[in-house]
Automatic annotation (TrEMBL):
Signal sequence annotation: none
Entry protein name: MTH1187 family thiamine-binding protein
Family: Belongs to the UPF0045 family.
Domain called Thiamine-binding protein: residue spans: 3-92
Superkingdom classification of source: Bacteria
Annotated InterPro entries: MTH1187/YkoF-like, Thiamine_BP, UPF0045_domain
Pfam entry (one): Thiamine_BP
């Protein structure tokens, strides 16, 4: 499964990068495949592994913020591994010049 999630501290002002870094640190230290972009962090693994990482990432932000917002989207597809890479590769293959007839 792949979970894309965003943890946002509330009540701490506009500069939230330090808080978000706490959450991302938890994800990266988990050892699970992951990617972070400007809006979400995606993590791939089995249900219990991924949800544990999300829970700990939220807890890391919650430890320093009075309120936390969590947005989560999950792709639950048993038996699929390396989806973080393969899904992007599929799109890139369709974007390649030969796919456009160039």
């Amino acid at each position: 499964m792949i979970v894309a999630f965003s943890v946002t501290p509330l009540g701490v002002g506009e500069d939230v990068g330090e808080y978000v870094a706490d959450a991302v640190r938890v994800v990266r230290e988990s050892g699970l495949p992951n990617r972070t972009d400007a809006m979400f962090t995606s993590v791939e693994g089995e249900w219990d592994q991924v949800m544990d990482v999300v829970k700990r990432a939220v807890a890391a932000v919650e430890a320093r913020a009075p309120r936390v917002s969590l947005v989560l989207k999950a792709d639950i597809r048993p038996g699929v591994t390396d989806g973080l890479t393969s899904k992007v590769e599929t799109v890139e293959r369709h974007l390649a010049p030969q796919a456009r007839g160039e």
